[in-house]
Amino acid sequence: MEPTPEQSPHHAYPDHWEADVVLRDGGTARIRPITTDDAERLVSFYEQVSDESKYYRFFAPYPRLSDRDVHRFTHHDYVDRVGLAVTIGGEFIGTVRYDRINDQGRPASAPADEAEVAFLVQDAHQGRGVASALLEHIAAVARERGIRRFAAEVLPANNKMIKVFRDGGYTQRRSFEDGSVHLTLDLEPTEKSLAVQRGREQRAEARSVQRLLAPGSVAVIGTGRTPGGVGRTVLRNLLASGYTGRTYAVNRAFDEGLATLDGVPAHRSLGEIDEQVDLAVIAVPAHRVPEAVADCGEHGVQGLVVLSAGYSERGAEGRELQRELVRQARSYGMRIIGPNAFGIINTAESVRLNASLAPESPARGRIGLFTQSGAIGIALLSGLHRRGAGLSSFISAGNRADVSGNDFLQYSFEDPDTDVALLYLESLGNPRKFNRLARRTAAVKPVVVVKGARHSGSTPPGHAVPVSRIPDATVSALMRQAGVIRVDTVTEMVDAGLLLAGQPLPAGPRVAILGNSESLGLLTYDACLAEGLRPRPPIDLTTAASPQDFRDALAEALADGTCDAVIVTAIPWVGENGEAETGDGQVLAAALHKAVAGGAAKPVAVVHVEIGGLAEALAAASSTAAPRPRTVTPAADRPRAATAPSTGPAGSTAPEAPTTPPVRPGPGSPADPKVTPAPEAATGPGRIPAYPAAERAVRALAEAVKYAQWRRQAAVPGKIPEFLDDTIDEPGAAALIEAQLATAPDPRGRPLTHDEARELLGRYGIAVRPTLPAPDPEAAVAAATRLGYPVALKTTAPHLRHRADLGGVRLDIADEEALRRAYGELTDLLGKPAELLPVVQAMAPRGVDTVVRASIDAAAGAVLSFGLAGAPSELLGDTAHRLVPATDRDAAELIRSIRAAPVLFGWRGSAPVDTAALEELLLRLSRLVDDHPEVVSVALEPVVVAPHGLTVLGASVRLAPPPARSDLGPRRLPNY
Question: How many CB atoms lie within 10 A of CB 190?
Answer without folding.
Answer: 14
